[in-house]
Write a structure and sequence with these properties.
By secondary structure, the chain is an alpha/beta fold. The chain has helices at residues 13-17, 30-43, 57-70, 94-101, 115-132, 144-154; strands at residues 2-8, 50-53, 75-77, 137-142, 169-175, 178-186. It starts with a strand and ends in a 5-residue tail after the last strand.
């Protein structure tokens, strides 16, 4: 049995401004660093074998905070764990999108990455992690949309309608050739 803790990165200034980040490389804000420290304290109550993260700064910085607390030297950066590409939407707020493209902007292509593409690369990354860490316990720090699309592909019956919160934990178990979700979107460490 392999256990994987899927983590969404800590908060950023663009999260607060409700700007679409996509693959724009933004750092954590002060609150995001504090969230990461609280998450690291929670994760330190258990034993972990490895940490993987998106190579975008907000995820890799969250992973660094966790790794420092856990005493894990190496963070494996994987671009397949990057957020979904937002195309022309990146950097805009909902209000700006409606003003520019109309109320039905979300139906337009605008260069956004297709959900199935994000799911496919997220799934491939997790399958490689499984091969590298059979029966291991691994932390994966990534982004909300790519994680939700990956979960949709791995556990189709899982209700992913609730967006993942910053530094939330989703626990996945791979056993008998199947994925199960033990915990979804838990942010108890922030309370």
């Amino acid at each position: 049995m392999t256990q994987i803790a899927l983590i969404r990165h800590g908060s950023t200034a663009w999260n607060k401004e409700k700007r679409s980040q996509g693959q724009t490389d933004n750092p954590l804000d002060q609150e995001g660093r504090e969230q990461a420290a609280l998450l690291a304290a929670r994760l330190a109550e258990e034993s972990w074998d490895a940490i993987y993260a998106s190579d975008l700064e907000r995820a890799s910085e969250t992973a660094r905070v966790i790794a420092d607390r856990l005493g894990i030297q190496e963070i494996h950066l994987d671009p397949r764990l990057r957020e979904m590409g937002g195309g022309q939407v990146e950097g805009t707020t909902e209000e700006e999108r409606v003003a520019k493209w109309g109320a039905d902007w979300s139906l337009l292509d605008l260069g956004k990455e297709h959900p199935d593409t994000g799911a496919s690369r997220g799934k491939a990354a997790l399958e490689d992690i499984l091969r590298q860490h059979p029966n291991g316990r691994v932390i994966v720090v990534s982004h909300g949309a790519v994680l939700r699309n990956t979960l949709r592909a791995l556990v189709p019956e899982l209700d992913i309608s609730v967006k993942l919160g910053n530094t939330s934990i989703t626990r996945m178990v791979h056993q008998d050739q199947a994925w199960q979700c033990e915990l979804y979107n838990c942010s108890a460490h922030l309370e």
